[in-house]
Inverse folding.
């Protein structure tokens, strides 16, 4: 079957999140046919990653996606001021058997990751994997050679040694510039001839053609205006930097069909415009979830009684990938975020029960509010859920 995958990249310029900005960023770009969404954010305010911000872009994006698309957050991570969020349809939770992360730092000779890359690999319940790489390379028109060098050092984040990778998407604020004077570029934007700059003056196009960077990667045809640098709150160039297509989405792999590639002129919270690309990818997965941990069905439970859930673990799975850091979580029935539970305990604290000659592990939770829930087993070595119960209900005792 074909999966529709949509990629977003947005340099936030340290701007705070607010509802209108999030809505304008996402609205109209994710439809009911979308299977996976990858969102790369650059220049996220430090307060959002180290604490202090009451409302963050990541929280606001997740809330918007849960409400408007019913997608779940499958993976999230950050490096300095860069973040990546991966969302997917609920039925895909059981089709992902492992999530891996890679990081490469370039700022201050690798001391920090303000400039650098984040790689995420989704291993499916098939021989195939999908990779997403979000990058923020060094700025400045004079630093073209440094950006090319950063590509080569950051290439490890694309899992190049993994032959199972069916599709790789590399996106972000690459910071490659248009080598032309400011007045000429602005004049071409005004008279509608700016696209001719791509073949003759765009540093990234030249690097790909000359095989200096992103070897084997492709880009959908660009039909939109440069995405940097805008006057905040508008779609007009600020007149201080040569307008350039700094924000890009590239792809590499088999069975990939281009759908769309555009900037988003409604999202004007930053001095960058976000870029969105959509693709169809031929994905082969098992027809049903192949859980390593199987939960016993829970009947309706009274809130006044501590919740006890029982499950069985595939012994081969635990031998190869089990960890004392694995945990059991109570999730809302909607499973908005696979990485965060309402309540959780370490799997190592569970106790054994023998039921009709079969061995189970049991987990216990107290004082769970009235509502509909699922239990899930999160494997820390695999960075994903490897077991998920059916929905059960907690009610007040009559």
């Amino acid at each position: 079957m074909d999966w529709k995958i949509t990629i977003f990249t947005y340099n936030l310029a340290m701007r705070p999140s607010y509802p209108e900005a999030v809505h304008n960023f996402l609205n109209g770009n994710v439809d009911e046919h979308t299977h996976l969404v990858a969102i790369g954010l650059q220049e996220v305010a430090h307060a959002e990653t180290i604490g202090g911000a009451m409302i963050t872009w990541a929280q606001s994006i997740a809330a918007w996606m849960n409400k408007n698309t019913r997608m779940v957050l499958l993976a999230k991570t950050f490096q300095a001021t860069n973040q990546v969020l991966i969302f997917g349809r609920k039925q895909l939770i059981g089709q992902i058997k492992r999530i891996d992360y890679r990081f490469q730092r370039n700022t201050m000779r690798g001391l920090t990751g303000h400039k650098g890359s984040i790689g995420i690999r989704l291993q499916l319940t098939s021989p195939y994997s999908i990779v997403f790489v979000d990058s923020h390379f060094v700025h400045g028109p004079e630093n073209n050679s440094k950006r090319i060098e950063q590509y080569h050092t950051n290439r490890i984040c694309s899992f190049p040694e993994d032959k199972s990778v069916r599709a790789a998407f590399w996106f972000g604020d690459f910071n490659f510039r248009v080598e032309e004077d400011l007045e000429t570029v602005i004049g071409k934007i005004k008279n509608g001839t700016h696209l001719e700059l791509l073949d003759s003056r765009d540093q990234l196009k030249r690097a790909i053609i000359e095989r200096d960077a992103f070897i084997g990667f492709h880009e959908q045809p660009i039909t939109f205006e440069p995405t940097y640098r805008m006057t905040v709150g508008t779609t007009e160039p600020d007149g201080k930097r040569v307008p350039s297509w700094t924000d890009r989405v590239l792809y590499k792999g088999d069975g990939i069909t281009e759908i769309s590639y555009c900037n988003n002129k409604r999202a004007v919270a930053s001095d960058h415009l976000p870029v969105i690309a959509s693709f169809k990818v031929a994905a082969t997965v098992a027809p049903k979830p192949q859980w390593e941990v199987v939960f016993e069905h829970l009947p309706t439970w009274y809130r006044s009684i501590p919740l006890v859930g029982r499950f069985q673990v595939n012994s081969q799975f635990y031998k190869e990938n089990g960890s004392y850091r694995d945990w059991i979580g109570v999730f809302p029935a909607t499973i908005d975020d696979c990485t965060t539970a309402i309540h959780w305990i370490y799997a190592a604290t569970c106790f054994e029960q023998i039921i009709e000659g079969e061995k189970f592990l049991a987990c216990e939770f107290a004082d769970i509010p009235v509502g509909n829930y699922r239990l899930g087993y999160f494997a820390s070595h695999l960075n994903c859920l490897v077991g998920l119960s059916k929905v059960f209900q907690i009610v007040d005792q009559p």
